[in-house]
Each structure stands twice: as C-alpha cells, then as structure tokens.
Design brief:
The structure is a homodimer.
Chain A lengths: L1 H10 L15 E3 L5 E11 L10 H18 L3 E11 L5 H18 L2 E9 L5 E11 L14 E5 L4 H10 L7 H12 L5 H4 L6 E6 L4 H12 L2 E5 L7 H8 L5 H4 L8 E5 L4 H11 L3 E8 L3 E5 L5 E2 L10
Helix pairs in contact in A: 1-3, 2-3, 4-5, 5-8
C-alpha cells in the first residue's frame, strides 16, 4: 500500500532513542534512575476535535500539545510518544507530509521524540491517539488531590482567549480589531502548553490541572479531587488585551471567560510560603502567573466579586455565551 | 453525556496501580528496578479489523491480545495498558458493558491492568487504540535483529489456522466436520497470544517475531532486520487437525498456510545449544514448539521441500488462497 509506505518514510525520521527505528513493532524504554514515568493519552477525531479543512501541521501540533499540557500539569518533562493514526486510503500525500512536518516541528520545540505506534486504514473520519510519556523525580508527580486549606491558587497566562477565538472564527464582527482578533484565534488554533514551566513546578506545587474544559470546570475537578473549596476572585483573573476589547465592546462578560475551554494554561496551588518561588519561576520561564484565589476547607469553586460576595457562576455560564 | 458517564463507571473497576482511579488524566508508573519497559501500540477499526456484528467482548479481547502478542515477541511480561476509545453517541449500553466485560476478563487472564486513556465521540466507525506496556530485565528485550547464522528457527503452536477460520466463516462447506471447523474459526476470533511463554524466552532466544501477517511474511521481517537468511522446511511446519482435514479435502495446500495471518504464534531463533531449554520451556508452559528451520548467512526466507529443493513460495501465495 503506497500510502502506508509514504507514512513509514515520513515518520521514520521522527523516531528517537528506543524506537528501534520504528522497525520492530515496539519501543524499549530504559527508565532514567530515580524517575517515575507519567503516562497520558488523548485522542482526536476529524469533525469532532478538528475540522477537515484545518491545516494538517496544526492538527499534528494540537495532538501533541493537548497531551503535553497534561504532562505539564503533572510536573513532568516530555520524554516520548506513541502515535496511532487512522487514515483514509485517499488521504492526500501532501496532507500526510504536512502532518509529519507538524509532528517534526513540535518534537523539536518540546524536546521529545516518536517512540512507536500504529498506522491503520479507516473508512471514516481521520482519528489519532497519542500516548505521551514524561518523567518526573520519583514520587514527585503533581496530582489533582494535593491542594490543602490555606494554599494560594495560581493560573498561568490569560483565560478565555481560546474560546473567544473559536467564537470569532464563527462571527468575526464581535471584535473589529483585526490584530487582536487574530491573536485570539491563534490561541484557539495553536495551543501553547506550559511545558517547561510545568516541569519545574514539582517540589512546591501541591496540586495542578490544565485548563482544557474551562477554568471553573477544571478548578472544580481539582477541588473535588482534593476535597477542598476554592475561592477565586473575579477581579484577579488574568485577561488578555483581546478579551478586554471584547468585554469593552459588550461582546463578552468577564465571568464568561472562566467557562471557556482550550486555553491549556495551568491552575495550581502552593503554600503561601512559596510565593517568591512561583514569581521567580514565572520570571525565569517568561510565563505570566497570577494569584487568583485561595484554598479553604469545604467543597466546590466559589467566584467572588470585589466585595467578596459570591457570584452565581452557573447563571452566566458557558451555555449563555 | 450519559454514555460517557456509563463508560467511566464501567472502566473504573479496571484501573490498576498507578492509574489514579482514572480520575487524574494521567497515570504514574514507577518502573521496577532493573527492568526496561517495552511499549507497543495497535489500533483497530470497525469494518476493517473487526466486524460491526462481532460480539463486543471478543473485540475487547482481540484488542488486548494483538498487543499482548507483540509484548510476548519481545520477551516482555505485561504490566498495564492505556486505551483510547472512539464511540458513537448511539452505542448501545449493552454493547459497552460487553466491551468492558471483555477487557476485564482478559485483564485477569493475562495479569495486567488499565492505566488510563481517553474516550471520545466519533461520527464514524468504532476505533480503538491500545498502548501496551510490558517489563523485561534491563537490556534483555528480544529484538528482530538478533538472529545469527547457525541458529535454529522455532515456531509455537500450529500455523494457518486463523486464516483458514476466516475463510470458513465465508464458506463453511470447505470443511464439513463441524467440530474441526469451529476450532479453526475460534482460532481466528479469539487469538491466544503466547504471553507466559514469551515472557520466559529472553536470555536464550536471539530474535523473535509474532505471526500476525503470516509466517513467511513475519519470518521475512525477522530475516531482513537481522540481515540473515532463513531456511524453513515445509514438512516441519506444525499443522492442526483442522488444517490437515482441509488439506486432505483439497481445500488448502500446505504452503498456503504459511501465508495466512492472525495466528499470533511466536517465531524465534536460538543457538542449537538451547534446544533442551526450548523443549523444557514448551513442556512447562504447555505450548507445542516445533523446530522448522535454520538461520544462515544471506537474505530472505527460503522454503524447502523434503529433498531440500526450494519451493517458489510466491507462486502459491496468499493471493491464490
């Protein structure tokens, strides 16, 4: 099958140490001494997680990046990945080359390599699954369960941009400024997982999660797993210039941003004694970090206004955007 | 989404050590000291690798077993797996329960557990990919590249049964004996990977491969990877009672069996000094093992008749069956 021969040719240069040149149906991994492995696996389907006319480079990058974001939230450093790809037999060779180029570009950017996988034919939508493997010092993996009362809650970057970008793809008129609009759209199209920042969080972050479902939803997962309540301050939420412009134009409300997904920022909690460490890490990695709240005994995520009264987040939720 | 809640409920009991109860989007693996990890990943697609009306238990089992066979060929012991599953939203709850039951049954049988994964919606065919992780003593993984001139070539079990079973599903009249026919069909439907046998091969097997594409094709992969020639004797090939009956009835030719896939037996090579070890291992594991040829300098796979003249295997190949 010519298409499979082409894929083999395109994928072989992506193979890293242990991949046995992709010739052996298996990879060998000698775990670095003193390290645990963190494993995560996300799948994406054409028409569900990406559009048929998305550039193949970008699909390959998004596939890597959603998984890299999961590793970052665990405090893990990317090591390698396995890829299962279901292609249609009529998939264009140019498309395949673009896909491989996207894989190659992000491999180099994030410092990991292809370990192995499988390529199969499908009569249906293109479907990819990636198994990501990262390393973290033994016993130091950051879990969702570790938040304790008294912790600060931090978030990297800005919130809601990807969701606004998706909305702008459908209705560009909601943000007339073309440059700001493009920035938001790129936040949706090319996630920037906090890989090197996340890999340095272990040791002082008590709990972490990446923002894929939306800040409130993902913070809710962390609160539930840790058995604590999170008090988050609306005024402390980091908002980009583009999001600010949309809020100014009446195209979005601040609290709505917290329901929007796909930002791939990190939410994490630390003891207040770690504030200087967090600040230094952000400065060294060039990652903006905002303190957005605190952890207390209880349950759930509570969004507070300036006067510390609780905002009914459900009433301004995702479904209203 | 109710279907996803059901899947979560069904999959959670499958989670093993390190899976964090499937609640954390990642698994943690502390590699056993002195062990390498062997990783392999196979995907299956409805309508391509299984039929829409196959029982879901059997699909789940086949998904595990094709991957377990890859681990066995590496001399690795199964440790755990990650599963990506793309379901249609209208997938029947009974189907999902059957699928989970199949996973559970084979987990218990083969002594490994679910580590994590992802469940997504698809508008297309059901698509599954499994990343299998096994352990082998450090540096002892059996590769395809290790065969050396002078080695014996062995194969486990019998050859060609699964392919004959597939043919019998389409045309049962080719084997009138119902019991023998059923045995061959089951060989196709429920592969029996040589897991415990394979896990004891390291240390004396020089090279191994599992028979998924067909004995000649897979032996060819081994020969090519090792840079050697394999001389295989047609008369030494292990043939089941069912296959023998089909040959007797003129429904199959002996050499055709060597082109048929999906047997999931192991082909491996060892120094002649290891013959007693191979025999003992087969006896202890209850696995029939046949010596079917030898390795010599050169290239390719050569099938020899009783008088050691070479049989033109291409002329009686798969496409003629």
């Amino acid at each position: 099958m010519d298409e499979f021969a082409l894929i083999e040719k395109l994928f072989r240069p992506l193979a890293g140490p242990g991949a046995l040149d992709l010739k052996d149906d298996a990879a060998i991994l000698t775990p670095p001494p003193g390290m645990d492995l963190v494993l995560t696996k996300d799948a994406i389907v054409e028409g569900v997680h990406f559009r048929a006319d998305d550039p193949p480079q970008r699909i390959a990058q998004k596939l890597q990046r959603v998984n890299l974001s999961d590793l970052a939230a665990k405090g893990a450093k990317p090591l390698g990945y396995l890829l299962a790809a279901a292609f249609r037999k009529d998939t264009d060779p140019d498309w395949l080359e673009g896909f491989a180029a996207g894989l190659a570009e992000d491999q180099a950017r994030f410092g990991w390599t292809l370990l192995g996988g499988d390529t199969v034919a499908t009569p249906g939508p293109l479907t990819f699954s990636l198994t990501a493997i990262g390393t973290v010092a033994s016993g130091k993996t950051i879990l969702r369960t570790g938040a304790v009362a008294g912790d600060d809650v931090f978030v990297t970057g800005t919130i809601g941009d990807a969701g606004l970008g998706l909305a702008l793809l459908a209705d560009p008129a909601r943000l007339p400024d073309a440059a700001l609009r493009q920035t938001l759209i790129e936040r949706y199209q090319v996630p920037q997982p906090r890989v090197s920042f996340g890999a340095r969080l272990h040791g002082f972050a008590h709990a972490a999660v990446d923002v894929s479902d939306g800040l409130l939803a993902d913070a809710g997962h962390l609160a539930k797993a840790s058995g604590v309540a999170l008090d988050l301050e609306l005024a402390a939420m980091p908002v980009s210039d583009g999001a600010r412009a949309m809020i100014g134009a009446g195209s979005a409300q601040p609290a709505q941003l917290l329901w929007l997904g796909d930002d791939y920022e990190l939410v994490f909690t630390c003891a207040p004694s770690s504030r200087a460490k967090v600040e230094r890490l952000g400065a060294e990695e060039g990652v903006p970090v905002s303190r957005i709240g605190t952890v207390r005994a209880g349950g759930g995520v509570h969004l507070l206004s300036d006067d510390r009264s609780e905002i009914d987040v459900e009433s301004i939720g995702y479904t209203h955007f």
